[in-house]
Amino acid sequence: MKATLTVLGSGTSMGVPTIGCDCRVCVSTDPRDRRTRPSVLLEYEGHTVLIDSTPDFREQALREKIKRLDAVLYTHGHADHILGLDDLRPLTFKREQKLPLYADDATAKVIERVFMYAFDAGSTYATRPQVTLSRLNGSLELFGATFQPLQVVHGDEPVTAYRFGTAAYLTDFSAIPERTMSGLSGLDVLFLDALRHRPHPSHSSLQESLGIVEQLKPARAFFTHMSHDLPHEETNRMLPANVRLAHDGLKLEFEI
Fold first, then answer.
1. Residue 160 belongs to domain with CATH number
2. pLDDT at position 121
3. Number of structural domains found in the chain
4. Domain containing 101: what range?
5. Of 39, 122, 238, 248, which one is least surrounded by beta carbons within 10 A?
6. pTM higher than 0.90 for the full model?
7. 63 backbone dihedrals φ, ψ, rounded to 5°
8. Spatial CB neighbours of 37, under 8 Å, sequence gap ≥ 6
């Protein structure tokens, strides 16, 4: 079945423009150089699935006119990927049942600690997010589609990547284990972390991600989680025809 993927955010943890910076990307007038924190939204068969709720989720949801969510998947527990959970509240209040969230055990523990008021059985906070949190345990079936969690390495921490149909989303990684590489063959769409040109201890660089694309040979590849080191138009001119920088608001279709 057909699905639409919307890039809600394509930036790094500090976003672009970065506070206090007046580099040429941060002051750029190209709207594609404005990058909120990294997240994508999937829509298929009338259902909507979010991957990560960033600190910019409110802005992203208003921009894309998100009116409902059916599930949220998390990649890891860093601030730029979870802190928008509280902004899910208006969407959870409209549901008959609590909104299901899914994460690996380490990420779930962080979420439960940071948002204790949402998960503590004794909480009396009247307008807390109406959510449930489940631990991932292998592949997940959501509304007729299969989401396969795949582990990547972010510095010395595990991060959950996801394959769904002919697409995969890998954010925040510096290495991809061989067993995960073997699960990424035959892709139409591949999203990869590509922080900057220079190497980084916990993120893939542009050149490293190009090497991964060459190995996996997806039909289309998009780089995300980008810092202010990568001007959109200039960088795109350097890339192969099937590789592009993602940008906030990008939409594409694929088979899920």
1. 3.60.15.10
2. 79
3. 1
4. 2-255
5. 122
6. yes
7. -60, -45
8. 9, 11, 12, 13, 15, 54, 55, 56, 80, 81
